[in-house]
Write the structure tokens for this entry.
Amino acid sequence: MRALELLNYLAALDDEGKLTALGGVMAEFPLDPQLAKMLIVSPEFKVSNEILTITAMLSIPNVWLRPPNQRAAADQAKAMLTVPEGDHLTMLNVFNNYSQNKHDRNWAWNNFLSARALAQAENVRAQLLRTMEKYDIDVISLEDEKKRNLGIRQALACGFFMHVAHKEGENYVTVKDNQVVALHPSCGLDPQPEWVLFNEFVLTKRPYIRTVTEVKPEWLLEHAPIYFDSASFPKGETKRALQRVANKRRGTSDEGERKTRSSREPQKEKN
């Protein structure tokens, strides 16, 4: 039932449990449903080239190496490639740097990265690209880096809106499950934003979320309005935060409508 609910929220199944047109294309990709949805809708944000890379990187083992006797050097090398806005953008940056330095056999080793895992990501990317071409899914990119990063984060939200946590005090609380979690030490987010999406839930001495990127609550309400209907949330800070965002969006919409109506009204002629 949880799996059917997930597919319904992703619009892969309709309310009667039948496969939608989107779901039919999602089924052709050898990916988890969230990854497939994210990849298919990414052209809407003009970042499908980058999402293709991120999807490939999420489909392989961890690329970072951290030898016990070289932890400080490994952490320093990782910091040089880290993108503060999120771990997914860091993955993209790592792959792009790997592609640019493929002629240097020592590049991955010097940066404490697994050359084998990165080569595997390259193969996965090529396979997914062929499937995208088969179904005429455009592979496009934005030139402006700031707009591109925003588009990437929005596309991530379209696939992983069920993996969202809201900051409350010093910790994060997962949406709907109300599980108190902390950012994993490997996360590169700086500073800690109010809303994040994550790919992994890790339980060691305490619950952690890993592979994390900042998202805006407005995107969640826009791209997953049914899931983020505040009426379905238990009382708490997360529900209040969503209601504030919804009220703000509604106020902005009402104001825009008033301005449009005003501009359409005939102006009184001056005597």
